[in-house]
Amino acid sequence: MTADNRSKVLYTVICGAGPAGRIETFVTLANERGWEVCCIATPAAMTHFLDLSDLRELTGHQVRHDYRREGDESFPRADAVAVVPATYNTINKWAAGITDTYALNVLAELTGLGIPIAVLPFVNTALAANRVLDRSVDELRRSGITVLYGPSGFRPHPPRTGGTALDRYPWHLALDALEIRLPPVAAAVIVENAKVLLVRRLVQEGSLSWQFPAGEIEAGESAAEAAVREVREETGLSVIESQVLGERVHPSTGRTMIYVACEVVSGTARVEESEEIAEVEWLERGQLGEYVPHGFYEPVQAHLDVLLAMNADDSQRSS
Ligand SMILES: Cc1cc2nc3c(=O)[nH]c(=O)nc-3n(C[C@H](O)[C@H](O)[C@H](O)COP(=O)(O)O)c2cc1C
């Protein structure tokens, strides 16, 4: 989720090269990782590679290729941009400041706004041998753009082997690169009376269904402050931080997560933000496997093991 609780929006700029014919692979992967995808196509991508109606159905949005006309939908604001596949033509024109396609104009503006952008080229070794491509890649990198080109990114293939190169096109690299640049998320781990507080979001985050109350850390906020605020906003419960349990890149969403153990001060947990949260539940240890089948991050699990055992002892003593 983003700071203002929208799902995160990924503009996907599609240029006219082979992988454009398989763009559904990328959209599906991005959806699985919790992105809402809005596609922008170059004229060459439109003419040679895309099935617009399929893509519209898959993304839930029109595919934009030109300036907005009356009746066209307006896209939600972009949190990040992926240029997949990026052609020799678009990379060189973008770096040279040319905006003679709608896609290039969007790229120029979003570059200027400092929105995170990842570029995954698809070029053969004949095009790659032109010095201008290296100059353009360097120019874009200087503008803060992540160009996934070279040993740890896309490696050019020999001419006439583009067909086989498609099978190993590393789509995931564009998402990995963007997710690292999004603000980290603070999650609140709260145990009371031998139960853990979990929420279910209206919009599923990747493969996650039930999860800790959580949200993006805002500018000037610590992880603990963000966790306490998110619990209040999502469930109405007032909590204080007791301990930061650990930090990791989440294997399902790719987001940096900071887990903060919190203690309840006052209030009753309920759905406070109904446009974002569907359900709030206090769960016993025995229910956790069913609600969170993929398990918890190790330091979080260790914390839960200790507290759930302690709380269970307490509640047995008091009953
Ligand atoms: C079938 C086909 C395959 C192409 N493959 C590539 C490619 O792999 N890489 C590339 O940079 N251009 C490739 N092109 C050329 C681009 O489509 C062409 O340079 C076009 O002007 C790119 O425009 P765009 O950058 O606005 O999408 C291909 C064109 C066609 C028709």
Automatic annotation (TrEMBL):
What SUPFAM superfamilies does this protein's entry cite? Homo-oligomeric flavin-containing Cys decarboxylases, HFCD (SSF52507), Nudix (SSF55811)
How is this protein named in the record?
A: Mutator protein MutT
Identify the species of origin.
Answer: Amycolatopsis cihanbeyliensis
One Pfam match: NUDIX
UniProt cofactor(s): Mg(2+)
Q: Which residues form the Nudix hydrolase domain?
A: 180-305
Q: Which GO terms describe its molecular function?
A: hydrolase activity
Keywords of the record: Hydrolase
